[in-house]
Amino acid sequence: MSGIKITIAIDGYSSCGKSTIAKQLAARLGYSYIDSGAMYRAITLYFLRNGVNYNSPDEVAAALNDIHLSFAFNNTAKSSDIYLNDEDVSQPIRDMLVSEKVSPVAAIKQVRSFAVAQQKRMGRKKGIVMDGRDIGTVVFPDAELKIFMVADPAVRVMRRFKEMYATNPHITIDEVRHNLELRDYIDSTREESPLHRAADALLLDNSSMTRDEQLEKVTVWVKDRAISNMVR
Ligand code: DC
Predict the structure, then answer these.
(1) Separation in Å, CA 163 to CA 24, 156, 159, 191
(2) By the 8 A CB rule, do 17 and 159 touch?
(3) Residue with the nearest Cα to atom 5 of ligand 1?
(4) Tens-place pLDDT, residues 44-81
(5) Was domain 7-230 assigned CATH 3.40.50.880?
(6) What is the pLDDT of residue 145?
(7) DSSP letters for 58-83
(8) Would you say the CB of residue 17 lies under 6 angstroms from ligand 1?
């Protein structure tokens, strides 16, 4: 692959497989991978643990002041663990309780400014793949490659169900479906940077693609963008 490093922004609805392709790409290209959703989840976890009333701007501001987020590469998992004030919270942020509250928390303007400022800093040197809901529209509007992912809702529910069932065998398909539908609704209708496809984002529907097929397809897009940026 060409030596030129680009920025890759991946957006889409919950459980479309954004993190899977983002991790694959980062590993193949030697880029860093940042899961921006993990940041909103870690903030939500802090709010839940500390009983922060997220309807109070003062309480939210005070809480954000106490929150420090960082990522550390985990060589075994080949992905980054997220730390909330020096505690590895990669597992607890996946709890259903956090999933239920994360969309309203991520809709708060102060929370978004806090997270977006850090995300922009992480992307300064390029060579990054970041996934989320507003990466191509707000965080990296100048990203050389923007991908908007979609997948059949039934496929998404089963993917998330399998993922959650591994750690919580009491979870039901209906609970997962309800949570995804609600999050899609809140994420795409909120006032602050709602989820939508950037005009220049390439559409990737992976409903019936294998992981290898999607990686090959997106790798072609990366090469194409890297080359066109080299000759510009
Ligand atoms: O990617 P995820 O499902 O783990 O994200 C959790 C929530 O965080 C999601 O419901 C919406 C929010 N989010 C966001 O608002 N903006 C982002 N860039 C990433 C996630």
Answers:
(1) 18, 11, 6, 30
(2) yes
(3) 37
(4) 999 999 999 999 999 999 999 999 999 998 888 777 89
(5) no
(6) 97
(7) HHHHHHHHT--EEEEEETTTTEEEEE
(8) no
CB-based contact 202:209 (threshold 8 Å): no
Q: 103 CB less than 6 Å from ligand 1?
A: yes
Percent of the chain with pLDDT over 70: 98
Q: What's the pLDDT band for 38 if we cut at 50, 70, 90?
A: very high
pLDDT at 232 over 60: no
pLDDT value at position 195? 94
**pLDDT, tens digit, for every residue of 147-184?**
999 999 999 999 999 988 998 899 999 999 999 999 99
pLDDT of residue 68: 97
Say how many Å lie between the CA of residue 209 and the centre of ligand 1.
Answer: 23
Atom of ligand 1 nearest to the CA of 135: 18
Torsions phi, psi of 131, nearest 5?
-120, 155
Total residues found in the chain within this entry: 232
pTM of the model: 0.94
Measured CA to CA, the distance from residue 202 to residue 169 in angstroms comes to 36
Q: Which two tokens stand for residue 36?
A: 């921006």
133 CA → ligand 1 middle, Å: 6
Q: What is the CA radius of gyration of the chain?
A: 17
For the chain, give every domain's residue range: 7-230
Residue with CA nearest ligand 1 atom 4: 37
3-state secondary structure of 198: coil
Q: Which of 133, 174, 131, 170 is nearest to 154 (CA)?
A: 174
